[in-house]
Amino acid sequence: MSSRLHQTGLLFGFVLLWVSAQFLGAIGGPIAACICGALIGLLGTFAARFFSLLERPAWLLPLLLGGCSLLGIGITSLEHPLSSLSWLAAPLTILASGTIVVLQTLNRRRCGLCTRRLSPGALTFTCPRCALVVCDESCWSFEHRRCQLCVEHRVPLLSAQKQWWDRTLGPEATQGRCQVCMASFEQSDLRHCGRCRRLQCRDCWDNLNGECARCSWTIPDLPDSLQQIASSYNDARPSHQHE
User: Fold this and answer.
1) What is the chain's Cα-based Rg?
2) pLDDT of residue 241
3) What sections of the protein cross the membrane (predicted)?
4) How far is CA 25 from the centre of its chain?
């Protein structure tokens, strides 16, 4: 609630500032009014970005600043006769602000999966399996710690070489079942957890990012890309993703 009140107060002061600026500029004549309108578009856009105001949708900020300019000129016209040139200040405000917004949008990073333009403070993740930099809103799976594309296509991460598995988890089990997918030792390559000795097949070890589903023990010698995700995961994960 306090954050919303703070943002509302900032927005009110933001509007009041630019209405007042255009009012004073219009008093100075039509040329001053137009110059003031263009400056409102430029300075107002940068100020809004600095205070994180009206970031979405992109067209809202230019229209608001144009409205501030128009209101300032309208108030001035109640006390002073204005030439028609003075009313061009509002379109100039929208043009100046809109130009900056378009340039800023074109320079923003894109999500590697949905290609959506990302805001400057957007949370992104580098997928440890395909190396795509993706947004957290729709393209990153917090549960699986990989991008949605790799989830859908079951892209492997751990080595496919039997020697690596033998060196890391010991020899293949000759009896039992995977305690995750219930595949038998005849169907899958089963390996014991290094801590609790629970059996998991190689596919489940890979799908669980090298973690034991029972005790959370992690396979040593995991790829660096996965270790980096694991170390920052708890800090970056939003609370709503925990459900």
Assistant:
1) 29
2) 39
3) 31-51, 58-78, 84-103
4) 39
> Are residues 208 and 147 both part of a single domain?
yes
**158 and 74 in a common domain:** no
pLDDT tens, residue by residue, 31-55 = 999 999 999 999 999 999 888 887 7
pLDDT of residue 96: 96
| Run of H or E including 140 | strand 140-141
Tokens read off for 72:
């300032």
Is 113 part of a structural domain of the chain?
A: no
For residues 133 and 126, the answer to whether their CB atoms sit within 8 Å is: yes
**Is residue 180's pLDDT more than 90?**
yes
With beta carbons less than 8 A apart as the criterion, state whether 189 and 165 touch.
yes
190 in the same domain as 101: no
Give the pTM.
0.58
Cα separation, 161 vs 174, in Å, equals: 18
Q: Is residue 111 a part of any domain in this protein?
A: no
pLDDT in tens, 190-231: 999 999 999 999 999 999 999 999 999 999 888 888 877 766
CA 135 to chain centroid: 5
The answer to whether residues 74 and 133 belong to one domain is: no
Can you give the residue range of the structural domain that contains 177? Answer: 124-242
Residue 29's contacts (CB-CB under 8 Å, 6 or more residues apart) are: 86
Contacts of 97 by beta carbon, 8 Å cutoff, 6+ apart: 40, 41, 42, 44, 45, 61, 62, 65, 66
User: Which runs of consecutive H residues, i.e. helices, occur in 55-116?
Assistant: 60-79, 89-106
Domain count, the chain: 2
Model pLDDT for residues 129-150, shown as the tens digit of each residue = 999 999 988 899 999 999 999 9
